[in-house]
Model the fold of this input.
Amino acid sequence: MDPVPWRDAWQQALYGTDGFYRRDEGPAGHFTTSTHGPLGAVLAEALGRLADREGVTHVVDVGCGRGELLGALHAVRPDLALTGVDVVERPTALAAGIHWLRSPGGATLPDDLRDLDDVLVVAHEWLDVVPCTVVEVDGDGLPHEVLVDAAAGAEEATGPVTDEDAAWCAAHWPLDGLAPGSRVEVGLARDRAWGDLVSRVRHGTLLAVDYGHTRATRPPAGTLVGYRAGTTVPAVPDGTCDLTAHVAVDTLEQDERTTQRDALRALGLTAAAPDIDLARTDPPAYLAGLARASAVRALTDPDGLGGFWWVLRRVATG
Done:
């Protein structure tokens, strides 16, 4: 098979007819995020508080998997209107009141997702799976786009770097002076995807939650990696694994940027354990309190999920 640009192979591997995100088991069959299980219940509580703070009554979850976070939101905040967006048909297990839009996948959003009002749009680990150009610096210090064999994963850094990608790098991730073998995941596609999402909101707040880096912490070797069955695997775009790369979060259109740890603390979430007396008077409530405290600790761990970035953009038209 002839090698193709990484962004093309990546798109097909995740969102093509037989792509990874269309598999029956869904993403949760391979990895756990802050949106799943007990963590998702606490994150839903936090997002409900964020919706209240921002003065909105509708939450849209872009790249929502099988709607796990929406289910948790519905359980704790049945007053909120909820909409999920993903590449699969609406899961039958979702509560009847949860709306669903099917997406083409990647940066492309559904046509019906527009003119959003009174809304909190959540893009949780969406941008890291928007395929982007991968560039590598050769032994002479010259940059080339990386091509990949979609079946085997073999790479060759022989493609030309487009003027647009080169301009993005010059502004945000300079290629001059990088050591041979250095790799850059060009964030232009992510910036454009985020900008498109922002343009679809008339009044409300958008939140991107992702692992990422800023200009001072760009990774010299890049971050493109695969995940399968809970394990990190080589990035091979054959449709059998997730493919993800960290986001240049400082290049996104934004009003605020903070870590998940600080964001959740600002929303009033604490990991305080329940009063020990509750273990005697109401053991189930005590155990639930311990589980919640454990989930908060995991979500705010600065060396783990607490280190994720929260990027907020507010839109007020008219």
Remarks:
- The radius of gyration is 20 Å.
- The chain has eight helices and 17 strands.
- The chain has two domains: 1-17+133-185+215-230, 32-130+187-211+246-266+293-316.
